[in-house]
Amino acid sequence: MITTNIKKQLYIGLASALAAAAAYGATQTIARFVVTSTAPASVSATWTIFFGMIFLLFMSLNNIKKDIKAPKKAFFMMGLAGIFSSFGVFFMFSALANAPVTVASPIGAINPLVAMALTHIFLQKLERVTVNMVLGSILVLIGVTMVILGRFTV
Amino acid sequence: MSDTLLGAILAALAATSWATGAIFARIGMQHMGSTTGTFFSLITGFLLILVIALVLDYEAMFNVSVETISWFVLLAFIQFPLGRFLNFNGIKYAGVAPATAILGSTPVFSAILALIFLGEQITLMIGLGIVAVVIGLAMVLYRS
Predict the structure, then answer these.
(1) CA triplet A25, A28, A29: central angle to 5 degrees?
(2) Chain B contacts of A38, Cβ < 8 Å?
(3) Nearest-angstrom CA–CA distance, B18 and A13
């Protein structure tokens, strides 16, 4: 029973990550259009995060009462996560304002390898990075690069 | 420095920022749900980015048309309720390493969208690239 629940959670996590990749794929194309034609990167990032905050407020209303009791350390960590993630949005919007999607997108895709290196260094007690994970991620990056380059070799 | 090189450096900074954010999110979400965690992370992130925008582009910050606002709302909807929430959900339930590895396939989805909406053709390199991504993801998932 416990194993079934763990597997179910894992599948939810993996499906969520895949759906997130599809969502981010769409936003990069839209963001490129917005930052090159309508507003500067910093303005676009700020307004986008502002509206995102409103969306998430409504989504989290039911859970806030329970989660507000979480340890202060958890809030501190989520605060740092927000700062770094928002910097990520700002940097990517700025990158898209300066370089084509075909340059910015694959470089942004090195994110998993950086995360794995950081996980290996800082989260050894929580997670283990396997050789397969590293090799798989490298293969994903190679594939991503080929897809990007292939778009211009019709 | 050329614009493209600057863009490449900024993209590398974005990747490093997202990866670092994922590590902190993993630690923080051991004690709270991903929706509340994502909302709280957006508050701190917004305050910081707001200061940067006010310093860099004060006039442009408040000089945006209704049409531009609607683009921001669309971007926000796809990026946050969908993107970041699903991302943090993936980190919470699958772990940082497999979730972020899957997230690395983002440009493939961009390519697929371009094929569907912009009518681009699948070249041999695109086909091989997608196969490499699928095999790479399978390797990551197998050990998960």
Answers:
(1) 95
(2) 64-65, 67-68, 71
(3) 18
A121 to chain B nearest CA, in Å? 11
Contacts of B96 in chain A (CB under 8 A): 115-116, 119, 123, 127
**In the 8-state DSSP scheme, what is residue A154?**
-
Provide the pLDDT confidence category of residue B117 given band limits of 50, 70 and 90.
low
The whole-angstrom distance between A124's CA and the closest CA on chain B is 11
Mean pLDDT by 10 residues, chain A (154 residues): 77 90 84 84 91 87 81 90 90 85 74 77 73 81 76 51
Give the residue, B110 or A135, on which the prediction is more confident: A135
Q: Which of A150, A128, A28, A111 is nearest to B132 (CA)?
A: A150
Q: What's the Cα-to-Cα distance from A112 to each of A35, A84, B19, B20, B96, rounded to whole Å?
A: 25, 15, 7, 10, 9
Specify the pLDDT at position A61.
Answer: 83
Kindly tell me the sign of the dihedral angle through the C-alpha atoms of A122, A82, B106, B2: negative
pTM beyond 0.80: the answer is no
What residue of A is the nearest CA neighbor of B121? Answer: A154
Token pair recorded at residue A57:
């407020």
| ipTM field | 0.76
Residue B144 has pLDDT above 80, yes or no: no
DSSP annotation of B120 reads P
Whether B114 and A151 have beta carbons less than 8 Å apart is answered as yes
Q: Is B11 an interface residue toward A (CB < 8 Å)?
A: yes
